[in-house]
Amino acid sequence: MSDTNPLAGQSALPGVLGMLDNAIARIESFILASGVLLMALNTVSNVVARFVFGESLHFSEEVNRILIVMITFAGIGYAARHGRHIRMSAFFDLVPTQARRYLMAFIAVVTGAFMFFLCYYSYTYILSIYSTGRVLPTLNYPLWTMYVWVPIGLAVTGIQYELTAIKNLTAKKVYLSTSVKDGFDEPEQAIKEQE
Amino acid sequence: MATLMIITMIGLLLLGFPMMVPLTAAAILGFYMTFDGFGQMNVMVQQMLGGIRPTALIAVPMFILAADIMTRGQSAQRLINLVMTFIGHIKGGLAVSTAASCTLFGAVSGSTQATVVAIGSPLRPRMLKAGYKDPFTLALIINASDIAFLIPPSIGMIIYGVISGTSIRELFLAGIGPGLLILALFSVYCIAYAYLNNVPTEPKASWAERRSAVLKALWPMGFPVIIVGGIYGGVFSPTEAAAACVLYALILEFGIFRSLSASDIARIAKSTGLITAVVFILVAVGTSFSWIISFARIPQAILETIGIADMGPNGVLISIAIAFFVACMFVDPIVVILVLTPIFAPAIEASGLNPVLVGIMITLQVAIGSATPPFGCDIFTAIAIFKRPYWEVIKGTPPFVFLLLLAAALLVMFPSIALFLPELAYG
Amino acid sequence: DTWRYAHEEYEGDVQDVFAYKFKEYVEDNSDHTVQVFRFGELGESDDILEQTQMGILNFVNQSPGFTGSVIPAAQIFFIPYLMPTDEETVIEFFKTSEAINEMFPELYAEQGLELLQMYPEGEMVVTVDEPVRSPDDFQGKNIRTMTNPLLAETYRAFGATPTPLPWGEVYGGLQTNILQGQENPIFWIESGGLYEVSPNLVFTGHGWFTTALMANQDFYNGLPAEDKELVQEATAFAFDYINEYVPGLSEEALQTILDSSDEVTVTRLTEAEIEAFRARAPQVEEEFLSMTGETGRELLEQFKADLEAVTN
Ligand code: NA
Ligand code: NA
């Protein structure tokens, strides 16, 4: 899928906050892209190893377990930033624009709150895993380290939603995220775009 | 407790919350009520992480990545051209080609969304220009993309296989028959539509053009060979087939077609990561949701209430079909599979139904439900991608939904539509 | 009260039978009820153990092989040819062993778990695409093992290529020849239909599939004396039942397999053939010791002393 907004990577925030936000965005995309590529490399190598050398890589499964946690929790922040989380908007779309702005702000505030809630409990869960000293059996890698992404990702996502709420309260249009506007195109535009 | 959880979930859903929130909220409510407070929220997190742990799920991002590489490169376009040069010129040919391209592309892509983008984005403008109405075009794209959900690979089947312990490779083979059946039904409707609305036909391709299109599409046709042949022939597990597809897509687009450069790969990886995360966060919170209802013994209570024990296999199959269809009209298919499969698991086991057949029925219902108004989530995918208002998008869907339901009825009457291939393969 | 009890097998399997016997005794002899959760209902094996440690579940049945990531020494059951193959001796060993009944409870206690009973589920039987009689026959064969490092070492020592895979991929892997074999107790081979796709059963005599019933320690310690006694009695009741049940079960399962397939072959290694495999066990023992250090060494020594005691 293409990024619908070419400016979507630029922070809508002013000054230092904007710089910080842009830095986080870059780190997020870096983690996301490298996570997917490492997973592809690992999975493909495992297949090649089995066919060419007749033996699977023992660590392959556990490496993928680490990567999938990383991709998921780096990705939810990125998806929030680009307004790409799956939602059902049938009734939402019927609401007039000005009211929709407030509804969106409400949705964003509450969504952010849920993210912070999960963030807190994922932190306490990691503490409990840390205290048991549980490891990944093959890599002998402490389990809690692979879960560090969870509270970080949830916190970043929560912040994104709170910023979206502010954006909707301060701007004139409805925003799905800090930089993605809600709205429609005409069919003719699709033809024009292709030509 | 169950009632309160469901009311919370549907309420938040209708307001337009991102889908992870209704599920999270319902799960938290369940934990709060079961344990008298937030004392056991650690288990909620444990189950979120447990949900994205199974190895078989790795196939999901790998298939998405392969499809993404093909869409940004030339493979998808070459498949479309192949179909167009052969059937583009018949009455309704452009519409039939769209359906056929979705089916063909479905043999690489595991998700409806990816197919809407890969096939819908280039073909919708062409259909509009040729004189098809936008509601028909949108409805066709939405519903034909559902064929991709049935043709292997399929993310829905992978997730059903993981949580029900059913063989993913048998599910993959079983999806092919119903997928082709739906393609046939849609093609008939497309041709009828073109006659009724007198849509002009496209110029006929010459044999030279056809030959060139075939040659160009030979490489991308390797994907179905890897997936179906590899799994059928016992060379690959589904996850390995996914990895092989990624490798093949990279070789094609970077090595042979030279359609992508190294700088594209980061963009593609990001987009794959994004789609993966959006799906997997639902898998994560959905797993917590099923844990709490399982812990509170809610499935047993629900099944007892509807008296499923006395229904017999066909009754169970039809109940499952209805439940998944209705649920998918409201919620994302992945979420529905995650939430409902564990609820029905005891009934499926007791009824002696073939779990592969159940899986295909579920996948089909999920596909239909998610394209069915009022709230099917494919509709919202199309709204997001094509930027069209809700009511415009749903206007053309009823005939397609009717045909899909017809396919489901045929499947209940003739299960061998699905089971023929796996039985041929594995006896 | 309602006591929650989770195990890692399906309806009718050994752990399920044990659980329902436990439930039967508790409910017949007290006002408590026991809710049994089967495989997958509350997550995977690791999850239910953790939930018991958290106190959400009161009882959990988990095989020491899965406990390996928390208690490495529990992998001792994967050292091949440590235990005898005849059932009576094995059951006697589980009843009398100091290692099992005194040392293991301490290891589990460190994890907040009260070990109630360890018990054998059945002898490990290998199924292969062709009968195997020597380590040479194992050459180049992918044998699926549980995802446990020591078990992988066993099959490497036997000459095969260990392939750790989750349970869900085993049947398909065998069917499509990605795997050439796997190991499991005979009742699993029967109930999972594995003999249909991997028909050559080899009784190598290298080990027993062992499992353990545990309780959350705070829960157990907080029980009044009569309830503690009730738990102990219910465990003993289920254990006695299982000791009768398991030997018959293996024979029954093998008979069912032979009745339903003509392809199945049964290979029982002779003492001389076993010797060739046994000769490779020390390499696994060393790996075990390097994983577990002093704790493992003490446990292994006691294990051997206890076995000495029951075999003589
Ligand atoms: Na597909
Ligand atoms: Na769908």
Automatic annotation (TrEMBL), chain A:
Q: Sorted alphabetically, which keywords does the UniProt record give?
A: Cell inner membrane, Cell membrane, Membrane, Transmembrane, Transmembrane helix, Transport
Q: What subcellular locations does the record give?
A: Cell inner membrane
Q: Which Pfam families match?
A: DctQ
Q: Give membrane topology per the record.
A: Multi-pass membrane protein
Q: According to its UniProt entry, what is the function of this protein? A: Part of the tripartite ATP-independent periplasmic (TRAP) transport system.
| Membership in a protein family | Belongs to the TRAP transporter small permease family.
- Quaternary structure, from the entry: The complex comprises the extracytoplasmic solute receptor protein and the two transmembrane proteins.
Q: What is this protein called?
A: TRAP transporter small permease protein
**The organism of origin for this protein:** Saccharospirillum mangrovi
UniProtKB/TrEMBL annotation, chain B:
Q: Which InterPro entries match?
A: DctM, TRAP_DctM
Transmembrane regions: 50-67, 79-98, 135-160, 172-196, 217-235, 241-260, 272-296, 316-340, 400-421
Q: Where is the TRAP C4-dicarboxylate transport system permease DctM subunit domain?
A: 6-417
> Which segment of the chain is annotated as a signal peptide?
none
Localization terms from the record: Cell inner membrane
Location, primary (coarse class) = membrane
Regarding protein family, the annotation reads: Belongs to the TRAP transporter large permease family.
PANTHER family attached here? Answer: SIALIC ACID TRAP TRANSPORTER PERMEASE PROTEIN SIAT-RELATED (PTHR33362)
| Job of this protein | Part of the tripartite ATP-independent periplasmic (TRAP) transport system.
What is the protein's quaternary organization? The complex comprises the extracytoplasmic solute receptor protein and the two transmembrane proteins.
Name-wise, this protein is: TRAP transporter large permease protein
